[in-house]
Specification:
With 159 residues, this protein is of the alpha+beta class. It is 16% helix and 48% strand. The chain has 1 helix and 11 strands, in the order αβββββββββββ. Keywords: Signal.
Length: 159
């Protein structure tokens, strides 16, 4: 086999494998726009926001989240609900389903991750890892980027 044909065959194999990895990535779960807001010096809690996209052909269920103990004592899935005229946050213990081909946005006033027992303030420009645990697929770790701090309107009541 000539050098040219051998090189062509190797390239073809490499591109084929790259294509398979791309297809597999497109069929799984992807997490985008993972961010948290900077906190003030004495803050004990913070929120993390992101979007989960399910490119698979079956529903997936996000059952938990975790961060390194150097960031916070605990990380929990939460949602925001109206209780009378007060907005309150509640921990989600039964998971969050993401339908096939759908996405779920974690944002202020909706689903979010609460970091409880912050070890130190979240500083703009910093980053840390967040691990998402699913009931029916492998866990995944993503990087949280800390952006500008929250305004005064962002305080909510936790129970």
């Amino acid at each position: 086999m000539s050098t040219f044909k051998r090189a062509f065959a190797v390239c073809l194999c490499v591109f084929s494998l790259m294509g398979l990895q791309w297809v597999n990535a497109m069929q799984g779960v992807m997490v985008h726009n993972v961010k948290a807001r900077a906190t003030f010096a004495m803050a004990t809690t913070a929120a993390v926001y992101f979007t989960v996209m399910n490119h698979s052909d079956k529903a997936v269920t996000l059952t938990g989240v975790s961060v390194d103990e150097s960031i916070a004592a605990d990380a929990q899935l939460h949602t925001t609900v109206m209780d009378g005229d007060m907005m309150k946050m509640r921990q989600i213990t039964d998971g969050i389903d993401v339908a096939p081909g759908a996405m779920v946005e974690f944002k202020s006033g909706s689903y979010h991750v609460m970091l409880m027992g912050l070890v130190k303030p979240l500083v703009e420009g910093a980053s840390f890892d967040l691990t998402l645990t699913f009931a029916n697929q492998p866990s995944m770790t993503t990087t949280v980027t800390v952006g500008a701090g929250a305004g005064e309107h962002s305080h909510h009541h936790h129970e």
